[in-house]
Specification:
The protein has 802 residues and is of the alpha/beta class. It contains 44 helices and 15 strands.
Amino acid sequence: QLKVLNDKEFEELAKDLLELELGIQLQNFKRGRDKGIDLRYSTEVNNNDLVIQVKHYPGSKFADLKRVLLNDEKPKLDKLKPNRYIVFTSLPLNPADTDTLFNGLTPYTLSSNDIYGEDRVLALIRKYPEVEKRFFKLWLSSTTILKKILNHAAEGRSLFFEKKILEKISLYVPTQNFNEALKILNDKKIVIVTGQPGVGKTTISYLLICQLLSRDFKLILVTDSISEAENVLSDDPDERQVIFFDDFLGSNINEVLYPRNTESAIVNFIERIQNSKNKYLIFTTRTTILNQVEFHYEKFRRVKRGQNLEFEVEMKEYDKLDRARILYNHIFHSELGKDQRDAFLLNNVYMDVIEHRNYSPRLIEFITTKRFYNYEGQSYQEHIFKHLNNPNELWQSAFDNQLTDHDRFLLWTIFSLGGYKVIQSNLELAFEKRLEYEIRENGFNRINNAFIDSIKKLIDSFISSYISESSNEFSFINPSVGDFLIEYLRERKQERKRIVLSIKYFDQLIRFFDVKENKGKIVLDEDELKGFYEFFKNECHELMTIEDSHVKAISVIDIYIKYLKASLTEDDLLPWVKSFEGLITRGQFYQLMGVLIHLEEYQLCTIEIVKQFNFLVKSLFQLCHTSDEFEKVLSLFGIYEVSFEEFLNEDDNIEFLADLVSDALNIEFQDNYSEFVDSSSIVDAMRYGSSSDATKLVDESFRDHTHDFIWSSKLTSIENDSLSERLDELINDYAFIDSGSIVSSILESSDYSGEEEIYEDYDREMARMYMERQGRSNLRRHVDRIFKREPTDEDKIRDLFD
């Protein structure tokens, strides 16, 4: 029973039980080097009046416990000199073991009663049942409850045998998902647990079922059709039954389109459960399948969404602390060796795992089990992140088995458009283009409402929907979906061809496809590009840009140069170069710069660009946000051999350029002040001077940055009195910088901000004196003790893994 707890939970159990048994309030401490103390009781005479050492050693031998206590802990006791020392362990101890520890730890253990082994711990749990109930895993795995669960499991086919239950319970972390599911089950008698693959739907269902089995309910496990449950559901209102249907309607779309469970059978069974006494129903299903059931089954949708009858709970994303507890439980209860466990602690790798964008309980279970051990040629850390970065197995089955071809067409279309904030109107046009291709080339039949139907099925399983100011937007529900699709495409040349030859927008090619190895990109080989050349040459006039820019020519030339250079002729490019005139958007700045740099190779194109040069560089100058971007535009004068001085003498270009430089440098400095301002100097100025001293330093930094840019750029490479005069004014004009906000931002991200936070709760002068004597970290702990601040989630995570 005790082995379902991790070491931290066991220590909390020890504190709760011994406080009741001894009638005193115990102190516990953060994890880490405890100096021989896990729990303590202090008096005015002796700070270490009672010291308690908690040792959770599931599966270990007495020799291990003896060695640690007598060799490692005893020397610490000689320094602490407590009046009494108690050992509290989960290890079974016989009388001889108890006497050995008592004799070895005297004079600090007053009697053998100060040694608590497994039997005495379990006796305390029975004595104080209110403690057992607070530890849900402990209560659920107790001998009495476990016997009830096993006795009331369905004969022959139950998943709930002792080992399975203990495995699941030991890894379980109570979350809001469980509390919500339990409330719905108690209120509605039915709960459908939905979510993405791997989020823990079955585990939560096991725990819900165990709750009911412990109350003398009998389990009916449904594996195929509702009729199985119908045949054994009792009409006797006193007979307690819980029906569990895992992976409701299967994992394949065909189970919905051609079901063994008819709509009427499902609806009738739900209504029968709701109208029966002592009967409960628990479903698990993937969100994809539930969406399809609701779409195809009108009666089910009506019953599920009727007044006060909503009975779905969707597994939500875990917060950081829940993620940490799940990871810690898996590591603690795993068979990982010391080196593998240490791999999570080295450089706080556990935090990288917890914060990983692809985190899921299923992946955590996978990387902490024996089948994960084969990682020849790699470190364990490398192997961990290899699978976190490529969680393909989470999505493979759902993608291949749960989706129709039309669903997959739509998912590939969202993918090709970037997978993030795809506007519905753009998505519909691109999806229609893909359907037209499939109908024309692969013989697919058009079906009514294909777009809306597939959206409904994919929502909350593969994609999420957001309402923006003017339209719906769609994104992958998790970044790991995009990672999976990239890997999937790398192995499937035919699917790549279908996507590339059915694009509606230029963006569908450039998002994820490339001509050379590039992380996060899919390489198109020479044959694929040859096939694309003819398609693009014929279709480029009809293709669109996502931004609906006036300058389609930039996108066309960019694709020609980047993807089709081997087949490219100057005749392909020249008509598009001649159509450059138009409004260039900020989003096209780097694209146009790249195009202009590469077009210099083509003689006729170069002649045409020189004709438009004044318009092009002025358009680019107006889009510059940084000094580096000004440098890039200035380089075009050399590439195309155009006189910069002649440019300055035209149309007040000096004033035009100086104003743009001023605006850009202001923006660059404001957005990236950390590159130009010495933050430590600002903090010192506030500590030892005044706010005006700090803002003055910011102003001087801006002036220095402006001076450095002007005198290192092409702007000063010619002798022009008007320009020189204007630039001198620019160097000395820094009135538009919001120095105060920059100072505030620096202080918020520095130790100074924390110091001010301390001073809000503590006398400033006393704090300064204390910090000088004890250091800042000790001051923080001192103030925390005074004001009893609650630790943050990050504090709790560090304490957990320390």
